[in-house]
Amino acid sequence: MKPASPRQLDALRFVAQQIRDVGYPPTIREIGTHVGIRSTNGVNEHLMALARKGLLALAPAYSMHSRGRVPTELGWQAAGINKPAAPPQRPQATSVPVVEVNLGWRCVECNAHTFDPTKPCFMCGRRKRGAA
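Now predict its structure.
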């Protein structure tokens, strides 16, 4: 099998640096911008060649995703970058409580919702209110 081309090694180094510095792999477009390839298909061909050479693998957390490729042990060595201690983790979503809001009143002038009919409208300053 042929050794990796300089452009392929550049892409591999960029993926490894991004994982080390940010904690997750770059997108295919980010790799293309860094390497100088405008076509995402061209970038994907380089990444597939690196995968065939055993330097890249699909990350389980990012499978079927534009950030889905991470260097293998051999890939980290070929890139010349020390592998981070912890594997890249996807950020965890935070839960946000859903609250029911009764908008109740509307301003007669600007039709903005208001919560207190005794205060002036926050949009136009008028005091006249109408029911919702």
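The chain has a mean pLDDT of 77.
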